[in-house]
Design goal:
By secondary structure, this protein is of the alpha+beta class. It has six helices and five strands. It binds zinc ion and manganese (II) ion.
């Protein structure tokens, strides 16, 4: 059994990506994290270990991982993208109050894609669905 980290390293090797200590740390942090961090979260978490690292460095490394198919970017129309190293099919619940993103499993909604394709003539490549509301913690205080 190889770990997800070893699998990721192997994949980077085959795409010719050179590993640096920072790249190593960012990848390990992402694979460990269930929280869908922003680039800024990663920067803050690793800043002590890499004082010379900038947020831009974190972004550049995330871009490399995305291009290698190891990480997915969840964009929100501004610079608050969240990053997810779980590439399996899954959906997200997002808290309107604290912003936490929690994974949930559901069979992929192929019928929605088929309906979209029928009605729009699009060649559908995929879909993204999020539910939003209040997480259990925030629901307690609202
Ligand atoms: Zn919340
Ligand atoms: Mn996720």
């Amino acid at each position: 059994m190889t770990s997800r980290f070893e699998q990721a390293l192997e994949k980077l090797k085959t795409t010719g990506v050179r590993m640096t200590p920072q790249r190593h740390a960012i990848l390990a942090y992402l694979l460990d994290s269930m929280s869908h961090p922003t680039a800024d979260d990663i920067y803050k978490a690793l800043g002590d270990r890499f004082p010379s690292m900038s947020v831009a460095t974190v972004y550049n490394n995330l871009r490399v991982f995305i291009d290698s198919g190891l990480v997915r970017e969840l964009t929100y129309g501004d610079d608050s993208s969240r990053f997810d190293s779980d590439m399996s099919d899954h959906y997200h619940a997002i808290c309107d109050s604290c912003g936490i993103i929690v994974d949930f499993e559901h069979e992929p909604l192929h019928d929605v894609e088929a309906a979209a394709s029928r009605e729009t003539g699009f060649q559908v490549r995929g879909h993204r669905l999020e539910v939003h509301g209040l997480c259990p913690n925030c629901a307690k205080v609202h």
